[in-house]
Structure formats: C-alpha cells, structure tokens
Amino acid sequence: MHATKVLEHLKKHGQLLDFDIAAAINMPLADVRASLTELSARGDISRCSVTSYVKGKAIEGFQCRISGYIPRPAPGRKPGVK
User: Fold this and answer.
1) Buried (b) or exposed (e) across 57-82, using 16+ Cβ within 10 A?
2) pTM for the structure as a whole
3) What is the mean pLDDT of residues 56-80?
C-alpha cells in the first residue's frame, strides 16, 4: 500500500530524495525506505545512495526516479545545431 503512494509521488514530481518523499506524503522515513527497496527490486524505480552535507553534517539517503525516465531537453538553443 505504501509503495503505490511513493510511486505515484515520484511519477508526479520526478527525481527526489527519500527524506523529501517522506516529508511530502507524511510518511515515516523507514516506511518510505522500505517501499523504495520494494519498488527497486521490482524494477519500477532507479535508486542510488547519496551523501548530502548540511552544515558540515553528513546525511545518508537515497535518490530515486522512475525507471526508464529520460528528462526533456532544456529549452533554448542547443550546441552544434545550425
């Protein structure tokens, strides 16, 4: 049940950190991480470990996005296009 909420939130908002997902959908971080592990095992999402530094303190987490998702190119001129 939690995995579907997490997956829908990722579909709507794109690539996010686990603690951002937990805060946005009002779910404990442990439940979000368990859901991300399940979704990653099924192949629904891509997940990697990240270390963020906030005021010199290391914070371990996961960065996730939907599997197979390729972001749109940024607007504007592209190099090499004439």
Assistant:
1) eeeebbbbbeeeeeeeeeeeeeeeee
2) 0.75
3) 82
Answer yes or no: are the C-beta atoms of 72 and 61 closer than 8 Å: no
Whole-number Å distance between alpha carbons of 65 and 72: 14
Helix runs in the chain, H state only: 2-13, 18-25, 29-42
Q: What is the pLDDT of residues 22-60, one digit of tens each?
A: 999 999 999 999 999 999 999 899 999 999 898 999 989
> Which domains are present in the chain?
2-66 (1.10.10.10)
